Each structure stands twice: as C-alpha cells, then as structure tokens.
Amino acid sequence: MIELLKPIGHCFGVINAINVTKKIVKQYPKQKIYVFGLLVHNEEVTKELDSLGVVTIDLTGVDPIKRLKEFKPDEIVIFTAHGHPNIYETILKENGVTFIDATCSRVKKTFATIKEADHVIYIGKNHHPEAMAALTMNDNVYFYDIKQPFDYSVVRSKTPLVINQTTLSFLELEAIHKEIKSHFPKANIVDEICNATLLRQQALKALPNTVDTIVVVGSKKSSNTMKLFELAHSIHSNKQIYLWENVNDCQTSELTFKHVVIASGTSTPMSTINQIKACLERKKEDGR
Fold first, then answer.
1. How far apart are CA 125 and CA 16, in angstroms?
2. One domain for residues 174 and 115
3. Residue 115 and residue 165 in one domain
4. Model pLDDT for residues 81-96, shown as the tens digit of each residue
5. Fewest CB atoms within 10 A around its CB: which of 101, 110, 208, 220?
6. CB neighbours (10 Å) of residue 253?
7. Cα separations (Å) of 92 from 74, 86, 216?
8. Both 94 and 112 in a single domain?
C-alpha cells in the first residue's frame, strides 16, 4: 500500500512566492530578474526558476549589504519567502532598484509581533534566513539557538515575549517553552509554528502501526522537511525511514515495503511527489 500523508506539497506561502515570481517574469520580459537567496528551500523549484531566466543568488559566504549595493536601476530583485532585514529594502530604494517582497504572510505576522514587543526571546535555527531576519526586527531580541544552550542572564525582562521560527518541530518547541517558563514564569509565549508545518508533524505522529516505511520528500536545506525527518526518527524508530530529494533517490533505492507513507516538506513540488509515488508503484509491481 502506498499512501500520501496530507497535507502534502506546497503550502500557501510557497505557492505565493512562486506565483509572484512567475508574474514578475511575465510583467518584465526584457529585464534581468534576481532572487536574493533561495526563493524557497527546494532545488527543483530553483531549477524551474532557472528555466524561466530568473537568476538565484546564493548568499552562502556573500556579504548581502555589499551585493545589494551592486544592483542596477534596470534590474529587479525578489526577496524570498523567508523574510529579510528592513535595511535590504532601504538600500535598494536609495539606488532606485525595483524590488518585490515574496515573504510568507505568516512570517510577516511573526515579524510584526516582534517589532511591537519590549523584550523578545526568539527561538530558531542559526543561519536560517527567517531567523536571521527576525533578529533584526527589534533591538531587544535574544536568540535562543535550538542547537546551543541559552544564556538566560542576558535577558533584561521578567516578562519577555517568546516567539519562534515558523518551521520548527512542535515537540521540540514544547520542551523549550517548558524550560523557558522555569526561568521566566511570567513569559508571554506565542507559538508561531505555521499550520502547514504543524499539521504535517501531527499527521506523521499519528501514523498507525500498519505503516512500515516512511519516505519524507524534500530538500536537506529545508528546515521543515528536516524537522519531519527528525520527528519520524524520534517517534517511529521501528519503521524504515528515508529522506529523498527527488525521484533519483527512489530509483537507486533497494527499498522493500508493505505499507509506505509519503510525507513532504512545504516547499516540495507535487510533481516530485507524484514521480516518487509512481516509482514506488513500479517497485511494488516488481515484487519488492
């Protein structure tokens, strides 16, 4: 049996970012269009944008301020779904460069909440673009890196707002919230895991015992994809668990199964998911 774990495929924020980019390509056919960073964290989506003539700027090891100052007035810059520091827009405005904001509406809501708070503990993954942008939204933001111990002595408030990157694991976040509450009982905790991420994690957690194999489809660069994969390992350690980026991973796999569930990150295209499903169906027909 082969089953798709719903919700699956692109979330609203990803669909919006892709549609915005395609609209700009049609609207400005003669101008050079750049995406400043990865529009969404999926290689298949980046390839599709490449085919449309959109240039994706990999910001790894790049000074973003310096690169922003190099854009010309006849070029167009699209900011990614993950959000960006406000100074990025200021630089482009000063240089007369047209820019488009494809930030997810849920991420914008998180940023707005941070801006209005006095003191903020922000929980996130270091170097993730959403987290790095969030830290610039308020002068009194204390970064709780999920991979490092947090120094509570730096927080200058007994009632901080506690908010998080939208793509974290809900189980991981529950434990962190409990820890923070032990230090700041009056902390104002706002859970900002987006519904598209949360519903996938909850559905994965509730899988029946009849499932013997889980295939998570998405990029290793995608935070919510990796959280699904990690969650699968922590809750379903007795099952076969795979992380596949595209159909090639299925084709080269010696996987055998009775009941497989396919889950996906929010930036994974349905075309990739359907290709993998078809590959698994062929394996089943071959008696694997």
1. 24
2. yes
3. yes
4. 999 999 999 999 999 9
5. 208
6. 15
7. 12, 11, 38
8. no
Peptide bond into 269 cis (omega under 30): no
Cα–Cα distance, 42 to 223 (Å, whole number): 11
Any residues with CB less than 8 A from the CB of 66 and at least 6 apart, and which?
none
> In the listed set 72, 103, 134, which residue is the last one of a domain according to the structure?
103
Residue that the structure tokens 């730096």 belong to:
154
Q: How confident is the model at residue 288 (pLDDT cuts 50, 70, 90)?
A: low
Tell me, yes or no, whether 150 and 131 share the same domain.
yes
* Full residue range of the structural domain in which residue 213 is found: 2-9+195-285
Give dist(CA 156, CA 110) in Å, integer. 21
Confidence at 286, pLDDT banded by 50, 70, 90: confident
Distance between CA 213 and CA 210 in Å, rounded? 9
Strands 161-164 and 188-189: parallel
Separation CA 279–CA 257 (nearest Å): 13
Same domain, 130 and 168: yes
**End residue of a domain, out of 76, 103, 130:** 103
